[in-house]
Amino acid sequence: MSLTFFLIASIIISFLAFGLAACLYAWVKKLPVSNQRIQYVGGLIRRGANTFLTREYIILAKFVGVVAVLIFVFLPTPIWKNSITENLTMALAYIFGALFSAVAGKIGIQIATIANMKTAESAKTGIRNAFMAGFRGGAVMGMAVVGSSLLGVSLIFLITGNTTALLGFSFGASSLALFAKAGGGIFTKTADISADLCGKVELGIPEDDPRNPAVIADNVGDNVGDVAGMGADLFDSNVASMSAALVLAVSIDKSLGGAVNAGMVFCYAAIGLLASIIGVATARIGKKGDPTRALNSSTYVTTAIFGILTALATWVFDYRWEIWGASALGLIVGVVIGITSDYFTNDNKSPVHKVAKASESGPAFTILSGISYGFLSTLPALVGIGISALGAYKLCEPLGPGYAMFGIAMASVGMLSIVGMIISNDAYGPIVDNARGLAEMGDLGDDVLEVTDTLDSAGNTVKAITKGFAIGAAGLTVIALLGAFISEVNQAATELGLLDKIITGFDVMNPIVFFGMLVGVAIPAVFSAMLMLGVNKNAQRMVSEIHRQFREIVGLKEGKKGVSPDYDRCIEIGTHGALKELIPAGLMAIILTILVGFIGGVQAIGGFLTGNIVSGLLLALFMSNSGGLWDNSKKYIESGANGGKGSEAHKAAVVGDTVGDPFKDTAGPSINTQITVVSLVASLMSTIFLTMSIFG
Amino acid sequence: MSLTFFLIASIIISFLAFGLAACLYAWVKKLPVSNQRIQYVGGLIRRGANTFLTREYIILAKFVGVVAVLIFVFLPTPIWKNSITENLTMALAYIFGALFSAVAGKIGIQIATIANMKTAESAKTGIRNAFMAGFRGGAVMGMAVVGSSLLGVSLIFLITGNTTALLGFSFGASSLALFAKAGGGIFTKTADISADLCGKVELGIPEDDPRNPAVIADNVGDNVGDVAGMGADLFDSNVASMSAALVLAVSIDKSLGGAVNAGMVFCYAAIGLLASIIGVATARIGKKGDPTRALNSSTYVTTAIFGILTALATWVFDYRWEIWGASALGLIVGVVIGITSDYFTNDNKSPVHKVAKASESGPAFTILSGISYGFLSTLPALVGIGISALGAYKLCEPLGPGYAMFGIAMASVGMLSIVGMIISNDAYGPIVDNARGLAEMGDLGDDVLEVTDTLDSAGNTVKAITKGFAIGAAGLTVIALLGAFISEVNQAATELGLLDKIITGFDVMNPIVFFGMLVGVAIPAVFSAMLMLGVNKNAQRMVSEIHRQFREIVGLKEGKKGVSPDYDRCIEIGTHGALKELIPAGLMAIILTILVGFIGGVQAIGGFLTGNIVSGLLLALFMSNSGGLWDNSKKYIESGANGGKGSEAHKAAVVGDTVGDPFKDTAGPSINTQITVVSLVASLMSTIFLTMSIFG
After folding, report:
1. Range of the structural domain that residue B265 is part of
2. Complex-level ipTM
């Protein structure tokens, strides 16, 4: 089959996903909400989330504008050395990448802030209806994200036929992800910490008390961090993995003639989306009403459909089975990494119990044991990524030159094939979490709360797995991006006639590579530190705003009827501060990349990216898992273990949870994005680094 | 000059160092101690430290025995394929490496546990005398360690003329360092935490109350962790850097004929020791009596003497100035890294103030800000190591093949040249710390306490610098060891006629290398986690022993005259537990190295070592600096800032300090040793990995 066939098929399947999203949106929207209190608070959350998005998108538009101009002038090669068309294409692709991701995020927030109310209300009629409301709400986001990423990549490729433009598109998606994930992460933890500090600690009012000016910001945070943020992150990974695979595929296809491998990438990606569509459309909760099982079983269904359909495609279109094997290996390892993360964070397993036990001796032991298990948790995941990369490479190496690295890229495409399902499950989490809060505020009664609690707990379990999955996928993707970087460099070197600059790899015994690696290793640590310090600073601002409102708004503290706090002001401050704190961290990563490139050229960049990948994976796994572990240890103690709520162990566990919050929701998952951004900057600037560097 | 000349000179200078050590030992010993209480408690500490050492050395002797037999049978090549002599030499060299380091450690403990009493007593006559007692006590250790490391390396080289045997000697030193540093680190924090938990927290008795059964163990811990542990660590680094330099030098010399470069290594190392001898012998405290200044100025004097004398030698013996430059660069970067560590942990600087400020919001913020600054602190040090490696390589590359890597090795020799001075300063710390405790227990009065406090605070400041220095030195040394590994592999490949297996480097785009790297990256994290969990488990054992004593020894709790606790039992438990917890961690690192080698051969090992080095440096810097930062933040608050002692901020800072203790005294500094051990195992088994591996 021709490449065009697969491009058209991909575009059609993307629209199928949009169609399903629209149906589910309509289905969720027509569910009734009768409780006025829920409507009121739900409306505030919705408005707050939109305020954040609007602010974020305004700043982003400026940022994207500036970067687009820079791209137009300098990339892929400075405009005075190149045709304007190529640079313009690149700049436009960049803008589209950001735009597509932004639209998907916007849709996700729209549905999530309706679905939360509908889920709360549906819980009155039992768990099955409530589950369907939450799950289908999440699925709208899943379908929107994956549909638009596949559509975007297909369109760019169809129009330009140019893989460099794809990297531009991918970079646009990464820019947005950086803002959405890291900015959203700072926002959500700022609001969480400030609301707790001023409400629960200082005034002794309950968690979701409407007198607290930060309470809406806190609920908004769940949506912007976990729905919009995670969606943009996986949009980014998905686009990056397809782009890397296509860069490598086209490079092989060029030497062989034809477009078999590029077609195969689209074929597999389209099948992945199709499998997710079927998985989402057929998801049902069993008679026993176990939501965790329902979520997991639809993931397994999707995985199986993907495996079978790609095998079928491989047979029909006469693709190489080795590549199918690489892609299946990626998918299996993704699931295994998810299961490992689950072991280290699940409250039925030993690590959570041990941290809860250690908490009896005080907060220092909560922290020490949590950090220790977080460190331990990195080994199986890193070995898993290593094995899948090695396996994919060795499987595909005999196929010919270039296939080995393409195999790794296809392993990451395989791992990300079920991403539609993953995002659906992930967005389900904050929706039911919000629903729980709304049910409490709307006084829906204990029976309803029990239902929402069950739904919420399933969301937490699934979240640990999807986070591990996201990190694993990012790991493989960036290895493939490293391959794409080499491919870009060599293409540029060939075009420029710099044949002595063609690279086959990066030797760590080359001190330029080693120098780059040492700098690269430090980046994720510094980036995480800047984000965490950003949360701290931003929380100070929000806390003083809360104090001001309690001081200046008469009757607020006393809960006088008709007096309500200025929620928007807190959301404004959180939003503004989050984006302000994020920008230096993002710039630091980008500027150091450029600096290393100008100092040591492409070899230093190779080392830099390698160091960045390995230390980024290490820290992301450590921080995400430690954070999840502390969260669940606290919940485990609250369920009555080790002295239960109010005990010394509980107080210690709360300290652990507070440390874990920015670990798992701000810094840890943002590292993925940081790595991708840096890899793409390097690839985009490859020609410049090739021709202008001190030691290169 | 002939190589033999430099070998003889090195041996003579080693004995000069021993002579100075003996003089200083005699000088300290003849200082008077009249206070009976000091004599009593000091005697207990001395006996306890010796109990630990004896226990440690017994277990070590078994371990060394087993490993020596394994070496004899398998290394450098299995005995059935090789002459017995070579394997026997290797096994003996290994035993000597462990033995030399053990003797130096024993001497250090002997003097430190006398000097603490003498310093306390001398403090009655003012700061100058007390400083000299503390400093000269530390200097005995410094001279013993560096003298015996130079002597050992010279003798092995003189007798065998074999660099492989040197690696055996170095591996012996590393084995001991692993026990001394990691075992001592677990012991000291076990005792510290248990004593605090049962004494200060549960019973409300003061820090150094003699009723507490763990109080002597706590004081013993300072000596075994900081004197014996740090000494063994730097003995190890020093031997490893010389060995790596010699392996590379001999390989160059072989191709050129002669032994110029090997001679140069000994020349520089001997000058380094000579400079330290002069620095120690001329150290005086100024009229103002500022001990920090006295310590720093003798370090600068040593640095300057080394720079001048090596320049002179380079001129006289007609060495290459480029190599002198590399070595000077290493030394300068070492000092710079020390200064950076100081910035992040000094209580006059911003990070400490910010962590103290954050502590006002509770322990979670102490932890978050401390971790963040710890992460930030890794960047300058990693960049520094990168620049010195790159600079040394580029300086020496034009000299011919092999010189580039030799330049890096000489940079690490340069960095470690002043190690005699560094150890002297470092051992000074626990001596004056102990002296402070003794002065308090001996009721020497406030004037004396003021003197010992000043001495102690200087010790803490200097400690931060030496820790940074030790990590930097280890970083350069292991890069050089990577070069030595390649050199060993190629020598074996040539001898075995496996010319296709000769390696020039490790390409990260080779998936075998990348696989090894991902596993290597996880090792320091897992190793640290095992040590920290070990401290936790061991502390539980000691706490229950303390509870037993209070329950069963009649009159102990009430402080009845003549009733004293069973201090030895606590020391026994701490010692036994520390070594028990350490062994699985050490074996994990070694077994995974062997596993990776058998799976992926020398290429996987190259990646493994690289990953291990970069993640080890990252985590060691992070943990040491965060730990130091928390310690000093607590002290800063205790000095009256942010609410002072007893405030909420202080309570939060105590949590930070407790987390930081195993960070900075157990896990962080042990990572150095772990990296060196793994590198040496890899080098020693290079022939085996070359001929037997699945994917290699």
Report:
1. 3-691
2. 0.91
